[in-house]
Amino acid sequence: MARSAAPDSASSQFYFTLGSTPHLDMNYAVFGKTISGVENVLQLREGDRIDSITIS
């Protein structure tokens, strides 16, 4: 979850990281891992919207 320095500021923003991000450990929630379709993740750009998603 994205957040600012203000307490309780988490919103519905989230990020796909392409490498290790130890500076985020213990500060942000991890929702999952891309195990297939990484080519789709690589095409994402700031401002893109997810209209539907399937989680299995």
TrEMBL record:
Domain PPIase cyclophilin-type: residue ranges: 1-48
Entry GO MF terms: peptidyl-prolyl cis-trans isomerase activity
Return the SUPFAM superfamilies for the record: Cyclophilin-like
Q: Which residues cross the membrane?
A: none
What InterPro entries does the annotation carry?
Cyclophilin-like_dom_sf (IPR029000), Cyclophilin-type_PPIase_dom (IPR002130)
Q: What is this protein called?
A: PPIase cyclophilin-type domain-containing protein
**Species in which this protein is naturally found:** Capsulimonas corticalis
